[in-house]
Write a structure and sequence with these properties.
alpha+beta; 7-stranded mixed sheet; 3-stranded antiparallel sheet; about 25% strand
């Protein structure tokens, strides 16, 4: 995703990346600057979401959607690039983001919103409109992935570029900044290997709390040497002995058993 491409309708087709499809918006009118682009590998089918795109004096954005069957996931995926023009009204941006996230949630889609929002998240505690921007994200279960400044000068450090998502499973993903000088902003990145949203069903285990196992649990507790706990003067150590004894007998008495999944549409949780 690229923002501030400065492409024009007359020259945008002369730029591209080999092996990638280019989806773009150019700034309208004679004003130079602006422009947003998405580059997608040519073997990935997608559709452009014109209904979500915006191209005016405040916001420039381009959206695409990838079908869940292509990704082998539970939900379709929406990806975009957004550019908020500096010095424009933040409330206008907040209203747009609120409407956008509401649509994505209503459609039950996953989304990664990339871009230069020109809203410094480092000021969230001291600037009401920035705090409101974050509150909108959290309200719709979206979170920013980047938490370090993306634009540095001798006088300032601001976090204005980000990748925002409602995919909360990031245990095996990589995110961060590229410290390169190809622009006055650091490029941000996020790498998702797809495991967290895979359709592959994982085995489910639960403990066997049968009546016989309850009897075994009580018998084990009766045979455990818990009376010596009262002789331990340190309350933290006493509790640790008690807790470990209880957990040990519990796990043995109520073993984990594999549950057969009977429904193909079982939710991942």
């Amino acid at each position: 995703g690229l923002s501030e491409t400065w492409f024009k309708e007359t020259n945008v087709e002369t730029y591209g990346l080999k092996g990638y499809n280019h989806v773009f918006q150019c700034r309208k009118g004679k004003t130079r600057g602006g422009g947003v682009s998405l580059f997608l590998k040519s073997n990935i089918p997608y559709k452009v979401r014109d209904d979500l795109c915006r191209n005016d004096e405040n916001i420039e954005s381009v959206f695409i959607e990838i079908n869940k069957d292509v990704l082998k996931t539970y939900h379709n995926l929406i990806i975009d690039t957004i550019y908020r023009v500096p010095s424009t009204e933040i409330p206008y941006c907040n209203d747009y983001i609120k409407s956008l996230l509401n649509t994505i949630n209503r459609e039950n889609k996953l989304a990664y919103l990339m871009g230069d929002f020109n809203i410094n998240l480092l000021n969230a505690n001291s600037h009401n409109l920035t705090s409101e921007f974050l509150d909108i994200l959290y309200t719709y279960s979206f979170t920013p992935l980047i938490n370090k400044p993306t634009r540095l000068t001798k006088q300032s450090a601001t976090l204005i570029d980000n990748i925002i998502t409602n995919n909360i499973n990031h245990s095996s993903c990589l995110k961060g900044l590229y410290f390169v000088d190809i622009s006055d902003h650091f490029p941000v990145f996020f790498i998702d290997n797809g495991k967290d949203i895979s359709c592959e069903q994982k085995p489910i285990f639960k403990r066997d709390y049968s009546k016989d196992n309850f009897i075994k649990f009580i018998q084990r507790l009766q045979q455990s040497d818990l009376e010596n706990i009262v002789n331990i003067t340190d309350p933290n150590k006493a509790f640790a002995v008690y807790y470990n004894t209880l957990c040990h007998n519990h796990n043995i008495s109520f073993p984990l058993i594999k549950v057969n999944i009977r429904y193909k549409n079982r939710k991942p949780w």
